[in-house]
Each structure stands twice: as C-alpha cells, then as structure tokens.
Amino acid sequence: MSFIRFVVFGLLFYFVFKLIKYFFAILLSTGKKREEVKVNTSKSNISSKINKDDIVEAEFEEIKNNDS
User: Fold this and answer.
1) pLDDT class for 36, splitting at 50, 70, 90?
2) CA angle 44, 48, 54 (to 5 degrees)
3) Cα 27 from Cα 23, distance rounded (Å)
4) Which of the residues 22, 28, 37, 67 has an alpha carbon 20 to 30 A from that of 12?
5) Cα separation of 28 and 44, whole Å?
6) In whole angstroms, what is the distance from residue 13 CA to residue 64 CA?
7) Phi-psi label, residue 58: left if phi above 0, alpha if psi -120 to 50, beta otherwise
8) How far is the C-alpha of 18 from the C-alpha of 21, rounded, in Å?
9) Which H or E element spans position 3?
10) C-alpha to C-alpha distance for 63 and 11, rounded to whole angstroms
11) CA dist., res. 24 & res. 32, Å (int)
12) pLDDT tens digits, residue range 38-66?
C-alpha cells in the first residue's frame, strides 16, 4: 500500500511541477513579445533616416550560359 501511495504522490508532484513550469513559461513569453515590439519600432525609425539621395540605381545584365 505504501508503494502505491508513493507512486500517486510522485505523479501528483510531477503534474504540479509541470503546471508551475508551464505557468512561468507563459509569463516569460509575454515579456519577450513586449521586448520584440520595442525592437521592431526602433528598427523602423532607423530605416526612415535614409536619404533618397543616398540610394543609387543599378543596372543588371542577365548571365547567359553557353551550352554546347
């Protein structure tokens, strides 16, 4: 009987530990999403500082293969 009680308490501890770990993972993932939003807004501000005079148009030629 004590072995069955040991297994039941072990499973109960396992599931409680998994639940706590899952809860903290959710809390930490929402914090990361907030940081990503801040990073994305700063990147858009950097790209808006580029002057159109600095952009140079380029001409490209198609490379042709000589199959013999």
Assistant:
1) low
2) 135
3) 6
4) 28
5) 25
6) 68
7) beta
8) 5
9) helix 2-47
10) 66
11) 12
12) 555 555 555 567 777 878 888 888 888 88
Q: Annotate 18-29 with b (16+ C-beta within 10 A) or e (fewer).
A: eeeeeeeeeeee
- CA 4 to CA 10: how far, in whole Å? 10
